[in-house]
Amino acid sequence: MWFGLQTTENLKFYAISSRFKPFSNKGKTLVIQYTVKHEQKIDCGGGYVKLFPSNLNQKNMNGESLYYIMFGPDICGSDTKKVHIILNYKNKVYPVKKQIRCKVDGFTHLYTLVLKSDHTYKVKIDNKVVISGILEDDWDFLPPRRINDPAVKKPENWDDEAEIDDPEDTKPEVML
């Protein structure tokens, strides 16, 4: 069965939801795929999907409802034309650090998010990979592997010149 949602006004919250049985993708690939068509010249709005916990009260669903994954295009003004990938880790949401440009041409586009059990991901638009990577590298889930120590300082006699002449250097004799 297919469902769709057609919106008529900018800057208005529209939602449709469907309950499905709880599942785990542990050790499996999770694929989220759907189509979006922005028929009108959109000034500000999104066409994204959110995966909520199975205990979500659908009648009270709103923009503040806890979700596990948010994925899809978001357009606002001339500056924001991006694909969101926001993942919930330990009840905190983390947006992807990379910029992914969405399509804004009035045609129908297929958006696909693939999350693999090896902690890699890829995003496809119209079945073409537009970005891929490793979850740990592209989200700030974990603390940085390396932290700069503010107490570490360069020695006072440190020279920042890329190359320094060696006063004892001599040119070798040319042998013919």
UniProtKB/TrEMBL annotation:
One cellular component (GO) term of this entry: endoplasmic reticulum membrane
Alphabetical GO biological process terms: ERAD pathway; protein folding
Chief place of localization: endoplasmic reticulum
Composition-biased stretches (Basic and acidic residues): 146-157
Annotated Pfam families: Calreticulin
SS bond list: C44-C76
UniProt keywords, alphabetically: Chaperone, Disulfide bond, Endoplasmic reticulum
Protein localization: Endoplasmic reticulum
Family from the record: Belongs to the calreticulin family.
The protein's name in its UniProt record: Calreticulin-3
The organism's taxonomic lineage, starting at the top: Eukaryota, Metazoa, Chordata, Craniata, Vertebrata
Encoding gene, per UniProt annotation: CALR3
